[in-house]
């Protein structure tokens, strides 16, 4: 399993339902690295 975590800073006017409207936190679980690479190869 591959786990990817991160944060993205965004324009707060685009979001109104978060504790910190300037930042999105994400957590992804992937089956394997091949699956991750195919995902990021999609235009």
UniProtKB/TrEMBL annotation:
InterPro entries according to UniProt: Dimeric_a/b-barrel (IPR011008)
Cited SUPFAM superfamilies: Dimeric alpha+beta barrel (SSF54909)
Gene3D superfamilies, per the entry: 3.30.70.100
UniProt protein name: Antibiotic biosynthesis monooxygenase
Organism: Altererythrobacter rubellus
Lineage: Bacteria, Pseudomonadati, Pseudomonadota, Alphaproteobacteria, Sphingomonadales
